[in-house]
């Protein structure tokens, strides 16, 4: 038998995709990192105070340990000793995402509270209008400002309904009216 020398490499007309995959992964990771940094810039710094608080700054006289190893302050709030983030002292990605979720939840709760307030006020205006016999036609008493705003972007209960129906032309919602309403 004659032996034919074989090459260990197999030539192929298909180009290697290893370099392209690595480049795509690098772009994807870069994009994720950019978006996380963008989130960091949008979250108020006070959301990261717990991460920067050193364990020796806790007032141990007015606090007690809980079974989970966290410290219960005199105000009744649990404060786990959290890490300081990255080596350069900035919050790490997990901390940024956690605080972003907390911040969004707080904002959503504020929006929900304002919506409930608005509904209560609309009901009160309708009630007073019936009692006094004075017609109120300069504001929209049928829909909340949230419903109207959502309809403008195509979502919510008024999505697809023509604008004259929900009376946004009559509603006087000026963004300046809501300034200074933070809690």
From TrEMBL:
Residues 1-37, 59-94, 163-183 are annotated as: Disordered. GO terms for molecular function: protein dimerization activity. Residues 60-84 have a biased composition (Polar residues). Residues 16-107 form the BHLH domain. InterPro entries: bHLH_dom, HLH_DNA-bd_sf. Residues 1-16 have a biased composition (Low complexity). It comes from the Eukaryota. SUPFAM superfamilies: HLH, helix-loop-helix DNA-binding domain. Pfam families: HLH (PF00010). This is KLTH0C08712p.
């Amino acid at each position: 038998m004659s032996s034919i020398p074989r090459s260990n490499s197999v030539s192929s007309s298909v180009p290697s995709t290893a370099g392209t995959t690595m480049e795509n992964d690098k772009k994807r990771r870069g994009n994720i990192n950019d978006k996380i940094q963008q989130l960091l810039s949008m979250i108020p710094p006070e959301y990261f105070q717990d991460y920067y608080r050193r364990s020796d700054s806790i007032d141990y006289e007015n606090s007690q340990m809980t079974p989970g190893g966290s410290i219960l302050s005199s105000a009744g709030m649990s404060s786990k000793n959290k890490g300081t983030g990255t080596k350069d002292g900035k919050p790490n990605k997990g901390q940024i995402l956690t605080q972003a979720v907390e911040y969004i939840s707080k904002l959503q709760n504020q929006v929900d509270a304002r919506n409930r307030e608005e509904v209560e006020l609309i009901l009160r205006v309708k009630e007073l209008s019936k009692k006094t016999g004075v017609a109120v036609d300069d504001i929209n008493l049928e829909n909340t400002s949230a419903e109207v705003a959502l309809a403008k972007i195509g979502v919510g209960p008024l999505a697809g309904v023509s604008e004259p129906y929900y009376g946004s032309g009559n509603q006087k919602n000026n963004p300046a009216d809501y300034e200074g309403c933070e809690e």
